[in-house]
Amino acid sequence: MVANERVRAAIYKAGLSVDEVCEALGKDRKTIERWINGHLPYRRNQHALAKLLGVDPSYLWAPTSVEQSRDLGMAEMLAIWPVRSLVPIGVWVELFEHAVRRIDVLVFAGFWLSEDPAVRQVLARKAKSGVRVRFLLGDPDSAAVQQRGEEEEIGTAISAKIANTIHNYRQVIQAPNTEFRLHNTTLYCSIYRSDDDMLVNTHLYGLPGHMTPLMRLRRVPGAELFSAYLDTFERVWATGTRLAALPEVV
After folding, report:
1. Quick one: which of 7, 24, 99, 216 could link to 79 by a disulfide (CB 3.0–4.6 Å)?
2. At a CB cut-off of 8 Å and minimum separation 6, what does 228 contact?
3. Shortest CA distance to 241 belongs to which of 185, 168, 161, 190?
4. How many Cβ atoms are within 10 Å of 2's Cβ, its own excluded?
5. Cβ pair 120, 114 in contact under 8 A
6. For residues 6 and 62, what is the distance between their CA atoms, to the nearest angstrom?
7. Helix, strand or coil, per DSSP, at residue 193
8. Of 77, 76, 116, which Cα lies nearest the Cα of 93?
9. Neighbouring residues of 210: CB distance < 8 A, sequence distance ≥ 6
10. Around Cβ 91, how many Cβ atoms within 10 Å?
11. Helices 117-128 & 89-97 angle (0-180, nearest 10)
């Protein structure tokens, strides 16, 4: 059995001794040492130790086989629609309504979503309640947005939609705990994240988003799908440029 150096390192980084971990979790020293030496704890113990050390359980215990990785991925998949247009707008409202920590959105325009007053209202209300809201919209002057318009054979329509989206969200943009950024990256998928739930709209060459598949994910400890899309959002967020302040809404 191979020692789990991630467990050992996380305990050290947390500034704890093995004895302190034993006391906090109500376990004997031999049990904790077995975990460090590579023994896989029961799931409830995985969560307890990860919470104590301030890390995700999936960091401490990665899937041990292809089958386990596949099964965990399937556990994350709650639903899939062949095209986004089949999904009722209420699904997005419900997604954002349940957020208590953060809402993240990655799109080029997402104009269709910004048109719905219920979506705008829940986003503004959540931001005012303390939920961190982050939006990534495409830079209308970027090569990526222009290329997407050429691929869909709609010219500069996407750039115009981005401007309209910004206008529609003007009250959300000015709410506390909210930040909008523009990005110039290729949009491989649109992401709508609310805490540990996520909608992912995959994109197909030459087709608009409403004609391409959408799946609903929920984070499962040790699984990889949700984390992979969240990492994508974070990488694009790091490249984004903050949207300039808008005139005050009266």
Report:
1. 216
2. none
3. 185
4. 6
5. yes
6. 10
7. strand
8. 116
9. 83, 84, 85, 112
10. 14
11. 10
User: What H or E segment, with its residue span, contains residue 49?
Assistant: helix 43-53
Alpha-carbon distance values, 4 to 1, 32, 145, 186 (Å): 9, 11, 45, 38
pLDDT at 102: 97
Sheet strands side by side (includes 178-183): 77-81, 214-218, 197-202, 189-194, 102-106, 132-138, 178-183, 241-242
Average pLDDT, consecutive stretches of 10 residues, N- to C-terminus, the chain (250 residues) = 82 92 94 89 88 88 66 83 95 96 97 97 97 98 96 95 96 96 97 97 96 93 83 94 66
pTM recorded for the entire structure: 0.74
Q: Where are the domains of the chain?
A: 5-62, 71-242
Q: Which of 215, 79, 208 is nearest to 152 (CA)?
A: 208
Task: Return the CATH class of domain 71-242.
Answer: alpha beta
Structure tokens at 146: 């222009």
Instruction: Pull the structure tokens for residue 244.
Output: 């300039």
